[in-house]
Model the fold of this input.
Amino acid sequence: MQPFEYVRATDPAAGVAAAAAMAGSRYLAGGTNLVDLMKEEVERPPRVVDITRLPLRQVQRTRGGLALGALLTNTETANHPLVRENYPLLSQAIVAGASGQLRNMATNGGNLLQRTRCNYFYDLATPCNKRQPGSGCAAREGLNRIHAVLGWSEACVATYPGDMANALYALDAAVRVRTPAGAERLIPVTELHRLPGDTPQRDTTLEPGELILGIELPVAAAAFARHAHYLKVRDRASYAFAMVSVAAALELDGQRIRQARVVLGSVAHKPWRSAAAEAALVGQSVGEAAFRQAGQLALQDARPLAHNGYKVELGRRAVERALMRAARLA
Done:
């Protein structure tokens, strides 16, 4: 274990100040990802700021929709009556995302910020631009079965592993953040995560020291409550990260699609929302033909690597299946 300084935050302002004062500091909430990374020495923060006692566990109705505290656990979020009634897609994604033990510890803020499960990222003996910028990407020429087929760069082909964020992308959620200057800003969740480009070590658009305070779900997204489905395809039925996942949501007018959301997981460095698939679905009648076309459009820009070409066809079929289930046709 590498030595580090431990600071317990007494309020959000103190926590942000402590993290911003030392470069490389990390926040500790549920610890389900950070602690593992520190044990493997992938993460070596000089300071860990414990935020577990901050008052960020609320669920509140707002004029704009529903606000979820960053320290609310995944279990508390998935089981809350307001979430289950108005945003069932989020509940489905969280339950699909991990074991009960992990959901009981993992927090909403930490879930959004979890890091890739790329094997080379965890292997200190191999080059990884995400872990050590400028060292190279071993996955480019190595075993890349679980890696990206969309949005990757020569510097990094890792994927974002989470499930909750995929649902939040589909629900047009936003993330409330406190800055070191003491201000708050609201980030559309679709702008929180980054594609790798030349700086894959940066997973998100958060600036150093910024703290997630909560997640805001718009009231308009409740229109998807009746017709939404989260599909997760994995190597085994028990707890495992997805090979491909899909968050699908529809608002229907009879059998006609008024609006749609299609978000794929585990295919890119961030959740991948397909504007082309969504636009093509609007005005169509629900059914296999429209949903098959959506699957084709969602993967039209795919660039498979040596070992993950299966994700293209799997992704197409997963989109079709998720939409069928959202429309209650399967």
